[in-house]
Amino acid sequence: MTAAIEGRGLRFGYGTVPVIDGLDVRVDTGQLVVLTGPNGSGKSTLIRLVVGLLSPDRGDVVVLGRPASDPVARRSIGYAPQGSPGRMVLPVSVTEVVASGLVKGWSGPRRDGDVDIALAAVGLTELGAECVFELSGGQQQRAVIARALVGDRPVLILDEPTTGIDRAFRPHLVGELRRRADAGAAVVVVSHDPEDFHDVCDRILFMEDGRVRDVGHDEFHTLEDVGR
Ligand code: ADP
Q1: Of 73, 162, 197, 227, which residue is least crowded by CB atoms under 10 Å?
Q2: How many other C-beta atoms are found inside a 10 Å radius of the C-beta of residue 33?
Q3: What is the pLDDT of residues 108-147, one digit of tens each?
Q4: Residue spans per domain, the chain
Q5: How far is CA 89 from CA 92, 93, 133, 143, 163, in A?
Q6: How far from the centroid of its chain's Cα atoms is residue 75's Cα?
């Protein structure tokens, strides 16, 4: 197993009180990992540390052997932040949003093909030419996910990808993420819903008291306080 993401001895607080404290985490290539836990437990904060949007007060985050702040590490991650449905008011097409996720180093010469593949992966092939602000909130969220998927980056991090997306489409997205992990990507999804990922994920990480711990699939169903 090769470590794709490693956090060691992490501590981070927005003010004086730490949100994350003494956290260790490791995700390997080829794994699909669900990160869950109560609202406000620090899941999005942990993700922002991994994608290099925040720096830890203490400890290290390493992505594919490089510090998370290293531009190469950042470019290796396809990141879909938590959605704000309906908030994408840019006068750009869906295709342009997705293409903005293509980064040097991870996208081959098939640039148009890469965008088409990512659009198909989220079921937006027919809407590529539409302006994003004309899309529904769920469709906008799918465009953001396609932006993370485009170019086959080796680390995928999606913060609540199924929230706001219609139920009928969810298994399609979950299957796509499983395929990406099987092809060798490290995939981390924040999710509160065991139904979405239970059958396909390799591990479930539960966040509480500033740390994460592995929980079993059965335990995931019985957790009382995972923000559902
Ligand atoms: P989760 O993703 O598990 O809901 P977050 O990482 O969003 O948790 O938030 C963890 C804690 O940090 C919460 O108490 C939240 O209010 C606080 N927090 C999150 N973002 C900020 C911010 N930008 N400034 C100050 N406090 C924040």
Answers
A1: 227
A2: 24
A3: 555 668 899 999 999 999 999 999 989 988 999 999 999 9
A4: 1-76+154-228, 81-152
A5: 9, 11, 5, 13, 19
A6: 14
Amino acid, single-letter form, for residue 22: G
Residue 15, number of CB atoms within 10 A of its CB: 6
What does DSSP assign to residue 127? G
Ligand 1 atom nearest to CA at 48: 6
| 1-76+154-228: in CATH 3.40.50.300 | yes
Among 10, 44, 53, 191, which residue has the most ligand 1 atoms within 8 Å of its CB, making it the best to mutate?
Answer: 44
Index of the ligand 1 atom closest to the CA of residue 37: 3
Give the number of residues written for the chain.
Answer: 228
Q: Which residues contact 171 (CB under 8 A, 6 or more apart)?
A: none
pLDDT band at residue 228 using 50, 70 and 90 as cut-offs:
low
pLDDT tens readout for residues 145-166: 999 999 889 999 999 998 888 8
Q: Where does ligand 1 bind, in terms of residues with CB under 6 Å?
A: 14, 19, 37, 39-45
CA of 45 to the centre of ligand 1 (A): 6
The 3-state DSSP class for residue 90 equals coil
Q: Please give the model's pTM, rounded to 2 decimal places.
A: 0.93
14, exposed or middle or buried, with CB in 10 Å at 0-12, 13-18, 19+?
Answer: exposed
